[in-house]
Amino acid sequence: MPTDIVMPQMGESIFEGTITKWLKKPGDKVQRDEPLFEISTDKVDAEIPAPASGILQDIKVVEGNTVQVNTVVGTIAGDGEAAPPRAPAKTSAPPSEKIPAAAPPPAAPAELQATAEPERPEGDDHARSSPLVRKIAREHNVNLSQVPGTGMGGRITKQDILTFLDRPETPSVPAVSGRVSAPAASSSSVPSPRSAAAAPAAVPGDAVPMTQMRKIIAQRMIESRRTSAHVHCMFEVDITRIVQLRNKTKSAFEQRHGARLTFMPFFVRAVIIALQQFPIVNASIEGENIRYHPHVNVGIAVALDWGLIVPVLKNADELNFLGLQRGISDLGERARSKKLKPEEVEGSTITVTNPGQFGAVFGLPIINQPNSAILGVGGITKAPLVVTDNDGNDSIAIRSVVHLTLGYDHRLIDGAVADQFMALVKKTLENWSEEVG
User: Are 397 and 384 in contact (CB under 8 A)?
Assistant: First the structure.
């Protein structure tokens, strides 16, 4: 008897979900717990595993449709069951209606990527891909400079490298036919949604519907602006000591703990220390009351190829430096691979975002409701600074500098408190003395 595939309920307050991508097509074999389709809800994007092993017999809800939880979206026939002829218009017509319109345009991006790829230096692989993508590349001995990226700024996504691995014959096909046949092949395989999503960029002037995630981001940003009295203050911080410490210990840290040593846990730790002295920055407004939260739950903004999400590191004030690094890395990886649970994007009390990773000197971030503050971390650059020694003598030296911006709700946090909070964050970072593990 066929097994029904249902839209899962991803949290108590979630009553519907949008199917954004089917990872299999009717007739494909599937294994139990293998990722089968992707959904988007107002909390999180996620990959949904197959409920049973067998053959994907039917797709009842096509990509882009939103349905109530527990709705049957497809069926899986058992290995021993004979699947009916794959003729229902319900499953085949919608993809064919979308693909012809979207299939021709991807030829242009594919051609542009093919010509632009040699210009990308191999050393840029880390900037254009996630750790998960680089892990897959290492396991399959793939040079990432040969993989066209369809993400923002040419970033190589997980789907890009999986597509590359699924088409080993592509390099041997003549250049012209390769560019034309690749989009056609994608119409019946996994990467079709990705190609279709990239198509509008090649057709200026087209009106493209917002994704579910983009709608939610737009709604929440407007709501935050209307809710909070946004004010920002910026501090210049000399983190030369931290940069030297990281350069000295990052190799040993990775060998000892199996995790990369990044700068983010330094900033999060400094925020936690400052919050202990200024708990109002970790509070939130509830009607005419102020809620002082007993723990520090840090939201870490993660930029995705398809939007933005803020997973939450719960009880961060109870973690040591190693715990912070592992927690931040884990949340980032699972956010990019759509493995987060709804409860992992809820309950933040303060947020940290890092526009500096893309080269920004600083940013003026919008508060993540219902938080009252958000810290923006700018890019780390070298600059000449006046340095005073212990004897009071001044000199000019090249130092590693970062600009930190605190966006705060002036209804709750006064300017003097915000400045004192940031002064303590600055002092902690400039005089870092904590062991990194």
Answer: yes
Mean pLDDT by 10 residues, the chain (437 residues): 85 75 90 88 80 90 86 85 48 40 38 35 49 72 78 66 65 35 34 38 75 85 94 97 95 91 96 97 96 96 87 95 94 90 90 92 94 97 92 93 97 97 98 88
CB neighbour class for 294 (10 Å; exposed up to 12, middle 13-18, buried from 19): exposed
β-sheet bridge partners, residue 302 = 309
DSSP letters for 179-233: HHHHHHHHTTSTTHHHHHHHGGGGSTT---PPPHHHHHHHHHHHHHHHHS-EEEE
Provide the phi-psi class of 287: left if phi over 0, else alpha when psi is between -120 and 50, else beta: left
Which 3 state secondary structure label does DSSP give 138?
Answer: helix
Q: What is the C-alpha to C-alpha distance for residues 367 and 284, in angstroms, rounded to an integer?
A: 11
DSSP 70-129: T-EEEEEE-TTSPPPPS--HHHHHHHHHHHHHHSTTTHHHHHHHHHHGGGS-GGGGGGGB
Active-site residue, selected from the candidate residues 126, 140, 295, 410: 410
HSE at residue 364, side-chain half, CA atoms within 13 A, is 6
Rounded Cα gap, residues 40 and 268, in angstroms: 29
Cα(61)–Cα(63) distance, rounded to whole angstroms? 7
pLDDT at 42: 66
Which residues touch 249 (CB under 8 Å, ≥6 apart)? 261, 436
The answer to whether the CB of 237 falls within 8 A of the CB of 426 is yes
Question: Is there a catalytic annotation at residue 414?
Answer: yes
Identify the active-site residue in 79, 124, 206, 414: 414
Q: Does residue 148 contact residue 117 with C-beta atoms inside 8 Å?
A: yes
403 tagged catalytic? no
HSE-CB for 19 with a 13 A CA cutoff: 24
